[in-house]
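Practice problem: predict the structure.
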Amino acid sequence: MQEPEEKKIALELLETEQAYVNRLHLLDQIFYTELMKEAKNGKTVPEEVVKMIFSNISSIYQFHANFFLPELQKRMEDWSCNPRIGDVIQKLAPFLKMYGEYIKNFDKAVELITVWSEKSPPFQERIADIQKRKVCANLTLQHHMLEPVQRIPRYELLLKDYVRKLPPESPDRDDAEKALEMIFMVAKHSNAAIAEMERLQNLWVVYQRLGLEDDIVDPSNELIKEGPIQKISTRNNSTSEKYLFLFNNMLLYCVPKVIQVGAEFQVHLRVDVDGMKVRELNDTQFPHTFLVSGKQRTLELQAR
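Answer:
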């Protein structure tokens, strides 16, 4: 007799989980443990750096090796009398939230490997030495580190497929559908973590361009748009190049610095979005002009 489709997918889940636990073992028990040992001896990099690179990989490894994989193995051995995995995956799903921390840290971790490999040749040599081992299969540390980032989407795909192939009367239908919903929420949670990290990184870059003025640096701000603009001077009928940053709560009216050491712009005026009005003007001499009036001041500006 041919194996039912849903069992084939459940077995694929088990096989990929075994391979994944091996990869986690390599990251935690080999790379992290050995690099940490060298760091403690003061031979390569500060211990803090190694901790930052590997984030919470130890917790992820312990969870999969000691809980999820054994549960899955047990379930597949009993498949003939209990053909279901939905309930096991429901137990797994809440713990997958700990991936948020690892995923948020991933770009920073890869950057730290690059920076410290240049700064510390012994550190680079140690990594290269581990990478030469058979267990690494000719792949770099960075490549292995990507695996946890890709694991949740993989669960989602396998489970979707599993639910699709389940016969309508399967005893696992309700549990499997609920498990899929939970995995979907966790995937959304980790995507949100990535999006939030990118938002904060971009915001920080903008703050650096503005010279890190204390009253402007706020992690909850959201940059909506930025770009060059012409300021119209009604006194002498001329325009001058300025630059605008529009945030969710304020409009920053800036002047590009001539000597770009440190900050790129100088903030000349800050207009609160609260109570701000924007009105288009019909000026034949200066097309595309508009007025921005706020509590602080009114500006006559011309777009390109």
